């Protein structure tokens, strides 16, 4: 990972420290410094300067539109429930149903495998730097598409097989994550020159991108899903301490216990709005019976976008999102067992309206952790402050609020029947966390 930007215009010029490190893969020709420097400048070129010249994508928009879609879905998703930093790790396994007692016992084994309660309690803050590679793997749309997630009907509509990160292609990027507690975190992720920032100050979780104004998540602040992909064992243990054990399953030839956690109806209502209803959000954790470590994290949520009669729509649209993260390469850092690599597969399924508007999109991400450190000195609350325009946006939206976030929100796409193209705003806005107030002119697909 490159952390410094060389100054080739002036030999005596100082190097610039990059906000987000750039992967070495960006430098396609290490023997030619000038060419490598041009590659870097093109990679970090502002998003607005590149949108007009980007090559077309498989979705009918630009390559920048594809990157928007990847970052909006895979970049900074949140866990469905808030996690308290004051909650004790060890809990009494007695006086509970057998499924709950088994889950608490499995979590205790996980705590021991990741370093023990004393070591986890000694962590005050955390820093991680890593690289990612994202890509689409499949897009299916049209009549005849099966409503199941794993099968297709006989009359398949539009099918596209795209690039795969396993074949060495995809959008390359890097990220930096700072965290002081599950509700205090800040992420900066840059992929192919497009940057997304997200964070939580303990009161509100927010997200900022070059193509959208800063906006806040509805409901109480929640942890970053990326942290629970093997980087924050304490938060993982606290999350699954209230789960139930539903059985066993073999994951990559590893026998695992399966723990399941459902978001409470009250939590779902807090995240819903007048035109978006979160029907369910479920998390599964797969813990190795041999090592006690978390080897797979999976979550799925279902949204219902209510029809707007003024737009000529009468049927609601449903979005189902499933994320499956395979976690591997555990290494001990300061007595804590931390995962240093993994892969996330995402499936987006849209149905409702007419059958020809049904679609399924698959994405994937591979990540590697380059650096991890704990108990960062000088990490103050100022590092987790939301963007300055976030408060202005909230004040500009009328109506009631839930959890300090304006309740008068609209999704970034129209609900309508007929053939469907997968526009960026359609998929980026499938989570109500990304709902925001926009103008009617912005509702059209890219």
From TrEMBL:
Q: Which domain of life is it from?
A: Eukaryota
Query: Cross-referenced InterPro entries, in alphabetical order?
Result: DUF620
Q: Which Pfam families match?
A: DUF620 (PF04788)
**Protein name per UniProt:** Uncharacterized protein
The record lists the organism as: Camellia sinensis var. sinensis
